[in-house]
Amino acid sequence: MPNKMQTIIAVDQNSTLSTRDRGLNYGDGFFTTAKVVDGQVQYWAHHKARLIECAQRLGFPELDFNSLENQIALHIKAASLNVLKILVTRGEGGRGYGLPSECNVTILLSVLDYPSNYSALTKKGVNLEISPIKLAAQPHLAGLKTLNRLEQVLVKKAMQTQNCDDVLVLDYNNNVIEASAANIFAIKNKCVFTPLLDECGIKGVYLQSLCAKLPVEFKRVKVEDLIQADAVFVCNSLMGAVPVKRIEQQVFNTDDSHALLTKLLAKEAEC
């Protein structure tokens, strides 16, 4: 049975969060961001699965989705094209890092504007450079979208001095992991592959939905593997699959990339 001890806060100008909240103090929590179209959350089944996995792996109580889904429906019913952010913390309590004896989960719901540049990027493609910031290995958190995002903050800070739309983020073994806020996948000889995320990185909702439509191989990926691919994409649940136009000096034809992915999806749908 779900643990009913959870507080749902719809974020607006009158919302408050305790200064003792563990999410604020220790990053003790997780979140997901979803695209909302005409009052409906896109890929909701995958977002829900992400929240369940995060709660289980981080030792949170089972979330009460009946209450959560009712509150979400209430707050997005007038949304035509927006972003829903669901942020979950362990609430207050505990001494220092120690866990509270009783957990009162806090859930923050935010309805945000949809990024204005995503439509243009989808059409023209993205230019990528390699980030000087590398990701550390932590298998216990690998794949999860936790509140510990300081590495991504540093990636975005470094991007301010780079001439690109986004970056390839590597680990300390120089394996490609992801973009600054998206997953990476590529097509080579009609086969789709993506970086293995067993030590770091986030397992994105769009990527999971793609795996339900196409055979996708998770493996160690180097920059050279992407440069030699027939097509490369960045993807997340807000913008979908966006073709890569350039990686450093290697240029891709985005029209060909779109056509290749469309053909693969159509072929798989026929099977």
Automatic annotation (TrEMBL):
The reaction(s) this protein catalyses: 4-amino-4-deoxychorismate = 4-aminobenzoate + pyruvate + H(+)
InterPro entries: Aminodeoxychorismate_lyase_IV (IPR017824), Aminotrans_IV (IPR001544), Aminotransferase-like (IPR036038), BCAT-like_C (IPR043132), BCAT-like_N (IPR043131), Class-IV_PLP-Dep_Aminotrnsfr (IPR050571)
Biochemical pathway: Cofactor biosynthesis; tetrahydrofolate biosynthesis; 4-aminobenzoate from chorismate: step 2/2
Cofactor (UniProt): pyridoxal 5'-phosphate
Keyword annotations of the record: Folate biosynthesis, Lyase, Pyridoxal phosphate
GO molecular function: 4-amino-4-deoxychorismate lyase activity
Record's keyword annotation contains Electron transport: no
EC numbers: 4.1.3.38
PANTHER family, sorted: AMINO-ACID AMINOTRANSFERASE, AMINODEOXYCHORISMATE LYASE
Family statement: Belongs to the class-IV pyridoxal-phosphate-dependent aminotransferase family.
Complex formation: Homodimer.
Protein name: Aminodeoxychorismate lyase
Organism, scientific name: Pseudoalteromonas fuliginea
The gene coding this protein: pabC
